[in-house]
Amino acid sequence: MVQRVFRTALLSVAACGIALAAHAQTPAPQTPAPATPAPAASAPAAAPAASTPAATTPAAPADPVVARVNGEELHKSDVTRMVSQLPPQVQQMPIEMIYPAVIDQLISGKLVSSAGYKAGLADSAEVKDEIKRAEERAVQRAYIQKEIKARVTPEALNKAYQDYLKENPAQEEVKAAHILVEKEDEAKAIIAQLKKGADFAKLAKEKSKDAAAAAQGGDLGYFTKDAMVEPFANAAFAMKPGEVSKEPVKTQFGWHIIKVEDKRTQPQPTLEEVKPQLEQSLSKDIVTALVEELRGKAKIETFQIDGSPMPKEEPAAAPATPAAPAAPAEPAKK
Questions:
Q1: Alpha carbon distance 161, 270 (integer Å)
Q2: pLDDT, tens digit, for every residue of 51-61?
Q3: Alpha-carbon distance 322 to 317, whole Å?
Q4: Confidence tier at 313 by pLDDT (50, 70, 90)
Q5: Which of 223, 218, 220, 219 is CA-nearest to residue 173?
Q6: Gap between the Cα atoms of 289 and 283, Å rounded
Q7: What is the side-by-side order of every strand in the sheet holding 249-251?
Q8: How would residue 37 be classed by pLDDT, with cut points 50, 70 and 90?
């Protein structure tokens, strides 16, 4: 499966249209460790000098070399960069599992690019144009990120949070339990039992056809009015805590006996809880405003797809001036 994913995911030679993922099927050969020479029999063991300090283990390099291809080095950062370009399901695999395929693909890519450089393709108009466009995209991203970072300030976030609270006011919630049955007569019989002191949770477990709620004694937890079907919600929100519905409530699911246990105002989220959502929304607004600002300062000319001038828009016709009303005719003289 890993190899199949790499056939479509690895991008090192995609521009050349060459499928090199097959190389990833062969694990990289293991270099045997050199044999440790046996000490000479006649050589006495040397006693360590008292003044010689203990040897320290050198620190591992921050970006170690993971391969050399004709003397050109590939580093750990190259592996990390390639893995970051793979689909999320591949990125979640242990690095030990995908490392041989990644390093093999990096080597293949290095060989192909080196061949391209030797062929002088780096100086071709096509490659230079592609590099220029890639650079422009990178500069666009960097500029947008810089502006977003500068404009998403604590003050902007706090204002967005206050606006969010106004647009999403706290709602009333009800905590209720119910017993759901198919027929009205069944529901009325259960209400009669409850009036005589029967335990609501016990009857819910025994008789309710809402299996999930029945396992919890009929408990539905807290919910807002718009979370339930209208007849049920209207009945529940009209009741007081501790009250059981006096008549069964009919919905498309059947007949309900409702018990309201509590009412509260829904707690609103904290700034930290909605911060990622607010940052995303602010970022979109900032990018839109930024582009509008740049357009407002720029001289922009557009042409038709063949390069010819755009047709001039005809000025809107002025509204016709209404004619003055005709003077009333004078009455005929006698």
A1: 9
A2: 444 455 566 78
A3: 15
A4: confident
A5: 223
A6: 10
A7: 219-224, 172-181, 254-265, 249-251
A8: very low
> Any idea how long the chain is?
334
Structure tokens at 301: 């000319």
Is 238 within 8 Å of 258 (Cβ atoms)? Answer: no
Which residues lie below 8 Å from residue 248, measured CB to CB, with a gap of 6+?
A: 184, 187, 188, 191, 255, 256, 257
Q: Which token pair is 76?
A: 């750990």
pTM to 2 decimal places:
0.54
Is residue 181 within 8 A of residue 231, CB to CB? The reply is: no
- CA-based end-to-end distance of the chain: 112
219, containing H or E segment: strand 219-224
Q: Is 116 a residue whose pLDDT tops 50?
A: yes
Q: Can you tell me the distance from the alpha carbon of 84 to that of 99, in angstroms, rounded to the nearest whole number?
A: 13
Distances in Å between the alpha carbon of 22 and those of 2, 79, 177, 207, 291?
11, 18, 60, 61, 45
Q: How far is Cα 95 from Cα 162, in angstroms, rounded to an integer?
A: 44
More confident residue, 32 or 179: 179
More confident residue, 27 or 161: 161
CA pair distance 266, 243, nearest whole angstrom: 21
Strands (E), 71-131: 72-75
Residue 182 pLDDT: 95
What's the alpha-carbon Rg for the chain, to the nearest Å? 38
Q: Could you please report the per-residue DSSP string of 294-309?
A: HHHHS----B-TTSPB
Strands 219-224 vs 249-251: parallel, antiparallel or unpaired: unpaired
CB 111 within 8 A of CB 67: no
